[in-house]
User: What shape does this take?
Amino acid sequence: MAKRVLLSNASSGMAGGMGAVDAALADLATDASGNGAQFLAGDGTFKAAGGGAVQSVTVTLTSAQLKALNTTPVTIVAAPGAGKQILVFAVFYELIFGTAAYTNIDAPGLYYNNALSAPIEAGATAANIFGASGNKTGRGTPGSASNTIGPNAPVVFADDQAWATGDGTGSVTAFYATVTL
Assistant: This one.
């Protein structure tokens, strides 16, 4: 089950890499009972069941960072602290093309705690965007990891292979909430 909401630059903090986007639709994940993110019209903020307000973060990535994702993942959301976990609702990727496309891209995406076996969102979306031969943006859809992730895990952008050739820059924007376990 999902709730579709409109997130605009003015209210969602989608500054930086998504500056060309005036508004974006985000599906906020819920479980079979409808629990999950809820819009609270009274104060105009989002809240997640068991957690705080839905927040957004944009991290700008250099070419050197993109080429080293297999050895040096980039932290998108820091570890939240004992007894808490990050719940990611949506992720946006952006490539600012340089002079050459990146090659040797495998399964870039968001992962918990640099555990490439525990993807939040990985695969075709980020690979298609960062492997493009021109400026490109797109939205990845976080899934439900079937493996167990312990509390206090950061969210990182990583890949299991070293990228080659490319020289563009990019950004990752994530919408998330911190959930108290």
Remarks:
- The two ends are 22 Å apart (CA to CA).
- Residues 1-42 have pLDDT under 50 and may be disordered.
